[in-house]
Specification:
This protein is of the alpha+beta class. It is 33% helix and 23% strand.
Length: 438
């Protein structure tokens, strides 16, 4: 980067908040190093940084905690990382209204600790909550096992402040749950991966903390047995907060010795949880299921990325969204495809909503790229056959060059391209990373 441009950025945020050279190592993605990283400390500094980048024609990569940095197609040219790490304050917490307004750089773990002092919580549990920022969770639409009952960030986001590529400040939604005036602008930025604007502040709705919580593993001898139990549980009077299916590899990553495990979460009053746990055992026993001891808190936190924990890096990961009843079949078919090519894999699924994660162990050797891409291509075909789609969430660049990261979304892609052209006409923000090349 030209020294003059570095000085312009430093004049905005200060020399201590512009990184270059070896300090850029945390921001290297798939071997590609940005030209610089800048750390604004306020909304006005974000606007000023974007103005400098726009004037210089420098692509900008908004950066939260970096937990989803590998998702998407990497930019063809180096650019500027805009980190929200310094913008990490809880601006306002209204316990009576069950709402909180935060800067985008606050981590989920820090926010949860702050809310816990008033016995409240944000009902999101993404992986790596100690690194994942609230703004990044919104941008990546990240979630965890508790989405079964509590939904995703789309259900919790009620207000957003965004800086557009041209530096314009845009606010959508409000600070109260019943604010319904105007367009539902916040949802436009959910899952946009930083391609439409830089999220700087958010307002979310909260929930009271439950009195107690228990995550109960049930061991099954086969995926078929576990699948039958899932259907029975969902048709029963039980109200699980999580319903996650793990193959043997993912189960072992959570220290569960079982060919297949179904982890069922309950919360509420202790008496309610006791009854639900006993009823779960009764229902599962009809399908050769056996209850195990509840998961310790630390292993509950590992549940969101159990499949990734089960495979030694490097690995390729794919998220498949299918009709919920087809989740177990997807796991069995995907495993068979990998084994047919001599590759190891691990699987987990939010069984009640049909979101399945497959992680493929990447063997050494250049010749393995074709085999890995072939298996991942099979997995995408399986997802389509089971009524859904698949996204390549992580993979070496060589694999991404062979297999498209994003599935074909048809006519919706053209609509998204038009939105991108309207909001970011100079293609400044994360160019080419997202669906349809936006």
């Amino acid at each position: 980067m030209p020294p003059a441009l570095v000085e312009r950025l430093a004049s905005v945020v200060g020399h201590d908040h512009v990184a270059a050279g070896v300090a850029l190592s945390p921001f290297v993605v798939e071997g590609r190093t940005p030209e610089a990283a800048v750390f604004p400390g306020s909304v006005e500094e974000v606007r000023a940084v974007l103005a400098v980048a726009l004037d210089a024609g420098l692509p900008v990569v908004p950066w939260g905690g970096g937990t989803a940095a590998a998702v998407g197609t990497p930019a063809g040219t180096s650019g500027l990382v805009l980190s929200l790490a310094r913008m990490n304050r809880v601006l306002e917490h209204e316990p009576g209204d069950l709402t909180a307004t935060v800067e985008a750089g606050v981590t989920v773990a820090v926010l949860q600790d702050r809310l816990a002092t008033r016995r409240q919580w944000l009902s999101l549990d993404p992986a790596d909550s100690d690194r994942a920022t609230v703004g990044g969770v919104v941008a990546a639409n990240a979630s965890g096992p508790r989405r079964h009952l509590y939904g995703t960030v789309r259900d919790l986001l009620i207000g957003v402040t965004v800086i557009m590529a041209d530096g314009e400040l845009v606010r959508g939604g409000g600070k109260v749950v019943k604010n319904v005036a105007g367009y539902d602008l916040p949802k436009l930025f959910v899952g946009s991966y930083g391609t439409l604007g830089v999220i700087v502040e958010l307002t979310v709705k909260l929930r009271p903390r439950p009195d107690e919580e228990r995550f109960v593993p049930v061991a099954f001898p086969s995926v078929k047995d576990a699948s039958s139990a899932v259907r029975v549980v969902m048709a029963s009077d039980l109200v699980p907060v999580a319903l996650d299916l793990l193959d043997g590899e993912s189960a072992r990553a959570l220290a569960l010795d079982a060919p297949v495990a179904l982890v069922v979460g309950f919360d509420g009053l202790g008496e309610q949880i006791d009854w639900q746990t006993a009823e779960l055992g009764r229902l599962a026993s009809a399908y050769r299921g056996r209850l195990r001891d509840p998961l310790p808190h630390g292993r509950v936190a590992m549940l969101a990325d159990a499949a990734r924990r089960a495979v030694t890096a490097p690995a390729s990961g794919m998220r498949l969204a299918v009709v919920p009843t087809q989740g177990p079949d997807t796991i069995e078919q995907g495993t068979a495809s990998a084994r047919a090519r001599g590759l190891g894999c691990a699987w987990s699924a939010h069984a009640g909503v049909g979101v399945v994660t497959g992680v493929l162990a990447a063997p050494t050797g250049r010749e393995s790229v074709a085999a890995v891409a072939a298996v991942l291509g099979d997995w995408r075909g399986i997802a389509r056959a089971n009524g859904g789609w698949a996204t390549l969430e992580s993979a070496p660049l060589a694999v991404k060059s062979v297999l498209p990261v994003w599935d074909d979304i048809g006519a919706a892609g053209r609509i998204m391209q038009r939105i991108k052209a309207q909001l970011d006409p100079k293609n400044l923000l994360n160019p080419g990373r997202f669906v349809a090349g936006i």
